[in-house]
Every structure is written in structure tokens, then in C-alpha cells.
Amino acid sequence: MLKSTLFVRKYPFSLLCVALVWVLSLTPFFPETPLDEVAFIDKWTHLVMYGGTCSVIWWEYLRSHRRLDYEKLFFWAWLMPVLMSGVLELLQEYCTGGHRNGDWVDFAANTLGVTLAVGVGLLMWCAYFRRR
Known about the structure:
5 helices, globular
């Protein structure tokens, strides 16, 4: 129990972002907006949603660790979000009663967002540790 409490204390915003991604991904209906006319707005949304979430994971990791553990970061800040993205796309396709649809291009946008967040995380690491 103590380990999970410590995890929640170290990564509260990351957990909030992940929960928000799940809720937004499985919400059956979204209202029409003027942004619907923007080309590829759905793909940009996926890229920003996953890139932002993984950037928050990096920020909270850097805040609570002195050294980078590349294996943990690969697993938690790249692989797990990519796998979560795939699971959510499958859930959208097969478990939302036709209200949402899974899309491989959405999955690619999610993966690109996560991968770009790795670059942002490494830049944050360089800037953060130069100040220390």
C-alpha cells in the first residue's frame, strides 16, 4: 500500500492526464465545434493529447529523480502509452456500440505524440539538470 501511495504522490498530474485520456477516448458523443472544419483536427488532437500526457510524465519523473533510468522511461513514458493507445483504439472499435470507431491513423498520431514527448523530455532533462 505504501508503494502505491508514493507513486500517486510522485505522479499526480500524470495519473490525472491518463484518466482524462481514457474518459475522452471512451465518451460516446462530442458536440459539433467550429474546429471540426480544420483539416486533420482529430489527428492533431490525438498528437497533442498523447504528447502532452507523456510530457507531463517526463516532467514529474525529472522532478522526483536525480538520474535517468532509461529502461523505466522507455517502459512507462513510451511503451505503456503506445500500448494504452492501441487498447483504446480497439475498445473504441468494438466496445462503444458504434458511437466511436478505432482508427489506425489515430494510433499513429498517438504514437507520434508519445515519441515527440520523448524529445521534449530529453530537452527538459538537459535544461533541468544544467540548472542544478
